[in-house]
Amino acid sequence: MIHLSPSLLAADFANLQRDINEAQAGGADYIHVDVMDGAFVPNISIGVPVVKSIKPHITGVVDVHLMVESPERYLEVFREAGADLLTVHVEATKHIHRAIQQIHDLGAKAGAAINPGTPVSVLEPIINDVDMVLVMSVNPGFGGQKFIPYSLEKLKQVKALAAAAGRDDLLIQVDGGVTLANAKEIIEAGANVLVAGSAVFDGKATKENAEAFVKLFQEV
Ligand code: DX5
Ligand code: ZN
After folding, report:
1. Which of 19, 34, 37, 63 is labelled catalytic?
2. Residue nearest to atom 6 of ligand 1 (CA)
3. CA of 215: how far to CAs of 62, 128, 180, 184, 212, in Å?
4. What are the pLDDT digits (tens) for 116-164?
5. Mind listing the pLDDT tens digit for each residue in 166-199?
6. Which of 16, 70, 107, 133 has the fewest CB atoms within 10 Å distance of its CB?
7. Nearest CA to ligand 1 atom 7
C-alpha cells in the first residue's frame, strides 16, 4: 500500500484544522509535520504545542519529521504531544542507533532520514532497527523546491537494502518536490510513503489534490 503524507509546511497555519480535514477527506492517511530549529536547517517552523493542538484532528499517522540538531532532546515531548512516527536525521545526531532505540522505548515508530548529500550506505547498520527510511529529495528547510533526480537512484538503493535484509515491511518515505507528475516514477523506484506539501495544500483544492494522489497510487 502507498501512503500519502501531506506536509503541513504548505498549509495555512491560521487554518490548520481545516486544511488537515480537507487532506484527510481526500484520502491522506498520514499527516507530515516538519519541525525546524534554525540550526540543522536554515529555517524555523513549528514545535510541540502545535503537534499537541492538531493531534485530536488527525485520524491517521502523526508523522513528525525532526530537522533539529541532537533530536534526542525532544523525542519524549513530541511523543507526549501525539507523534506516532518520529523521524530523525542521521546527520543531526552522534548516536543514531540510540535515538532509534529511544523512539521505540517511547512506543512510537522510528524513522531515519538522509539528506541529498548523504549516501544510503549509512543506513546499512540500522536497517533492521528502523520502521522507516526517509530519503530527502530536496535539501531540507523549505517547501516548494524542485525534486533532485538522483533521489530516484537512492530510493532504489534503499529498496535493495531492505530486500537484502528481508525487510518487506520497511516504510520508504520520500520528501521534497513530490508532484502528481513525478509520483509514478518515485513509487516505481521504491517509495511507499509520499510526502507532498505544495502539491497538496495549494489554498484552493486540497481535498481534490489529495484525491488525485490516492487515485494515482491505486493505478500504479
Ligand atoms: C522540507 C520538508 C518537506 C517540505 C515538502 O524541508 O521536509 O516536508 O515541506 O514540501 P514540498 O512538497 O512543497 O516540496
Ligand atoms: Zn519533511
Report:
1. 34
2. 140
3. 22, 31, 10, 11, 5
4. 999 999 999 999 999 999 999 999 999 999 999 999 999 999 999 999 9
5. 999 999 999 999 999 999 999 999 999 999 999 9
6. 107
7. 140
Sign of CA dihedral 44, 70, 156, 108: negative
Is 34 tagged catalytic? yes
Q: State which residues form the domain around 161.
A: 3-219
- Convert the pLDDT of each residue in 5-42 to its tens digit: 999 999 999 999 999 999 999 999 999 999 999 999 99
Grid coordinates belonging to 107: 512506543
181: CATH? 3.20.20.70
Mean pLDDT of the chain, nearest integer: 98
First to last CA, the chain: 10
Which residues lie at CB < 5 A from ion ligand 2?
Answer: 34, 65, 175
